[in-house]
Automatic annotation (TrEMBL):
This is Peroxisomal multifunctional enzyme type 2. The lineage of its organism: Eukaryota, Metazoa, Chordata, Craniata, Vertebrata. Residues 428-539 form the MaoC-like domain. Pathway: Lipid metabolism; fatty acid beta-oxidation. Pfam families: adh_short, MaoC_dehydratas, MFE-2_hydrat-2_N, SCP2. Transmembrane segments: none annotated. InterPro entries: HotDog_dom_sf, MaoC-like_dom, MFE-2_N, NAD(P)-bd_dom_sf, Peroxisomal_Beta-Oxidation, Sc_DH/Rdtase_CS, SCP2_sterol-bd_dom, SCP2_sterol-bd_dom_sf. Residues 573-674 form the SCP2 domain. One of its GO terms (molecular function) is 3-hydroxyacyl-CoA dehydratase activity. Belongs to the short-chain dehydrogenases/reductases (SDR) family.
């Protein structure tokens, strides 16, 4: 179906010739009422004439279209918009095209005068501001608007002799991006186009043949599509010319943290990490300020570059209120596994990031996922890494995902979720199989703080009031612990080794002293659950489930064993990733890798990573058949590569890393070592 603009009012600035004229004609041909704005100045911004705008209006009317002329400067934005209101009665239901302002004052930077600079900025950037501001309230009122800012390749890439023009055009891109954010809730979309077309601005520097191939009519269809109500594109940048159209986006290297905690940051540290800072391997494509690495670190679902945190704990740390540490059956409640990871995130983590300002009175815990790889020891030293893995010695113990919300900090334009998040799941649509009610105590929050969660929101009434609560609330993770304990009691005979994973969404707060009611549904080894406050029937934990090991799966011989090699931690992580998304990895990689790990020059371990068969697998030992790639590396060098301290190419050419077989397939290892290595 053809795109129609019947009933729409379109203002095209600078439309007395060139691109603007072509836009005006195209809109009118498809039924729009067009305001043809042009001051009639010459190419350097001098003079004034009504002839250019009048001629375009005559062309439109001769073809049966509707158009009026406006001769005001774009710096008189209110007058320009008023002319549309006077002629057609509305501007809110419009498509506002800020077309190419048809003046240039090119000079080399050294020869650019104040007038050269100011005139270009007044017409291009300041003019765009005045016209758009005048139309903005009308668009918001009628909840519709389409705005096109015309930028330039000179603004995107720079161009000799056009410092004034480049700066103004890039300024229009920034203006457009912000308008896209502020207008989206009102159905106002703003995009930027950098066209290449033959016009009076380019005919002096292009051959006639090139000008002929770059007709404005080859750009106009793109403008019409972006302005149509069917088009939902917003905040984007495009280049167009000669019938070709392309979308542009930013790219950012992974970068490198060069600041060490409690140490001054030095230029030498920047110099030493320069190659890593400028390495675009695994580059990201940011789309908003929320994608900035500093603000991104507020979401622990992303693998951020923070330091590891060491935490010592003992049996009394694990006790809280339910257990006696000298009982023969004493064990650590599985949900205690969140505490070391939470310390890594908050202590020396988020709070140590320079430039990150979060009001911690407004921080709420949104969701939590915890997966255990073996029962938690009742004492020891835990090490929680930047990807929320927790180790005891060389053993991988558990993995955490946190979702954290900052009240009142929305509207940034970024993604509301992450593709790395473990999804919350609704319970079955039937009555629960088991319901268990437990009482929290008035001092429950004070007791829970002893586990290591010291947030004053849960103990200090004045701090809670700053967060908008009438009194200190119970830790969400305390309710989380109640729910897990209920599942273990009802379905696992209180055996913590049966616990595999838990996912919850924190919905509403619990006040200390209230009754917690846990409703549970058994589906195989997965127990769906939701928690309510008994007194109010308000759901406080939703979309939750606990995964259990079968009785045989939880036996000691089936749990991960202690290893003396550092590389075993890496292979444990590879195994977790294969377990999570093996089928997808097999599709992407389709290869079998054999690893020969050496220690002190002698063979120490062999591993097979099969991403070719079934859903993928990891096993200790040599492959049963032929491997596509065999890699030999020392335990120490392998860990150095994974941690990014040793470049894999340098390791290969220096002989530290030996590769046999299809060497090109080794590049696919990036899929399973992503965020930890560059192989």
């Amino acid at each position: 179906m053809a795109l129609s603009f019947e009933g729409r009012v379109v203002l095209v600035t600078g439309s007395g010739g060139g691109l603007g004229r072509e836009y005006a004609l195209a809109f009118a041909e498809r039924g729009a009422s067009v305001v043809v704005n042009d001051l009639g100045a010459d190419i350097k911004g001098g003079g004034k004439s009504s002839a250019a705008a009048d001629k375009v209006v005559e062309e439109i009317r001769a073809k049966g279209g509707k158009a009026v002329a406006n001769y005001d400067s774009v710096e008189d934005g209110e007058k320009v918009i008023q002319s549309a209101l006077d002629a057609f009665g509305r501007i809110g239901e419009n498509c506002l095209c800020v077309a190419t302002y048809r003046i240039l004052r090119d000079r080399s930077f050294a020869r650019t005068s104040d007038l050269d600079w100011d005139l270009i900025h007044r017409v291009h950037l300041r003019g765009a501001f005045f016209v758009t501001r005048a139309a903005w309230s009308h668009m918001k009122k009628q909840k519709f608007g389409r705005i096109i800012m015309t930028a330039s390749a000179a603004g995107i890439y720079g161009n000799f002799g056009q410092a004034n023009y480049s700066a103004a055009k890039l300024g229009m891109l920034g203006l457009s991006n912000t308008l896209a954010i502020e207008g989206r809730n009102y159905n106002i979309h703003c995009n930027t186009l950098a066209p290449v077309a033959g016009s009076r601005l380019t005919e002096t520097v292009m051959t006639p043949e090139l000008v002929a191939s770059l007709k404005p009519e080859y750009v106009a269809p793109m403008v019409l599509w972006l302005c149509h109500e069917q088009c939902q594109e917003n905040g984007a940048l495009f280049e167009a010319g000669a019938g070709w159209i392309g979308k542009l986006r930013w790219e950012r290297s992974q970068g490198c943290v060069v600041r060490q905690k409690n140490q001054p940051m030095t230029p030498e540290a920047v110099r030493d990490q320069w190659d890593k800072i400028c390495d675009f391997t695994d580059a990201t494509k940011p789309t908003s300020v929320q994608g900035h690495p500093v603000t991104k670190k507020t979401n622990c679902l992303h693998n951020v570059s923070l330091h590891c945190t060491e935490q010592r704990y003992n049996p009394r740390t694990c006790v809280c209120v339910f257990l006696y540490e000298r009982h023969e059956d004493f064990g650590c409640l599985p949900t205690f596994g969140v505490i070391p990871a939470q310390a890594a995130m908050m202590d020396g983590g988020l709070s140590a990031i320079p430039g990150l300002n979060i009001d911690f009175t407004r921080v709420l815990h949104g969701e939590q996922y915890l997966e255990l790889y073996k029962p938690l020891p009742t004492s020891g030293i835990s090490l929680s890494t930047t990807i929320m893995n927790t180790y005891s010695g060389d053993q991988l113990i558990c993995f955490n995902q946190f979702s954290v919300f900052v009240v009142g900090a929305g509207g940034f334009g970024g993604s509301r979720t992450s593709d790395k998040a473990k999804a919350a799941l609704p319970p079955p649509k039937r009555a629960p199989d088991v319901v268990m009610i437990d009482s929290t105590t008035r001092d429950q929050a004070a007791l829970y703080r002893l586990s290591g969660d010291w947030n004053p929101l849960h103990i200090d009434p004045s701090f809670a009031a700053m967060g908008g609560f009438q009194a200190p609330i119970l830790h969400g993770l305390c309710s989380f612990g109640f729910a897990a304990r209920h599942v273990l009691k009802q379905f696992a005979d209180n055996d913590p080794s049966r616990f595999k994973a838990i996912k919850v969404r924190f919905v509403k707060p619990v006040m200390p002293g209230q009754l917690l009611q846990t409703e549970m549904w058994k589906e195989g080894n997965r127990i769906h659950l939701q928690c309510k406050v008994k007194e109010t029937d308000a759901v406080v934990l939703a979309g939750a489930y606990v995964d259990l090991h079968g009785a045989s799966e939880a036996s000691p011989e089936n749990l991960p064993q202690h290893g003396a090699l550092q590389s075993e931690l890496v292979f444990a992580e590879i195994g977790r990733r294969i377990n999570d998304s093996g089928s997808e990895l097999v599709k992407k990689v389709n290869a079998v890798f054999a690893w020969e790990i050496t220690k002190d020059g002698k063979s120490a371990a062999e591993w097979t990573v099969d991403l070719k068969n079934g859903s993928g697998s990891l096993r200790r030992g040599a492959p049963s058949g032929k491997a596509d790639v065999t890699l030999t590396v020392s335990d120490e060098d392998f860990v150095e590569v994974v941690q990014g301290r040793l470049n894999p190419q340098k390791a290969f050419f220096s002989g530290k890393l030996k590769v046999r077989g299809n060497i090109m397939l080794s590049q696919k290892l990036e899929v399973i070592l992503k965020d930890n290595a560059k192989l």
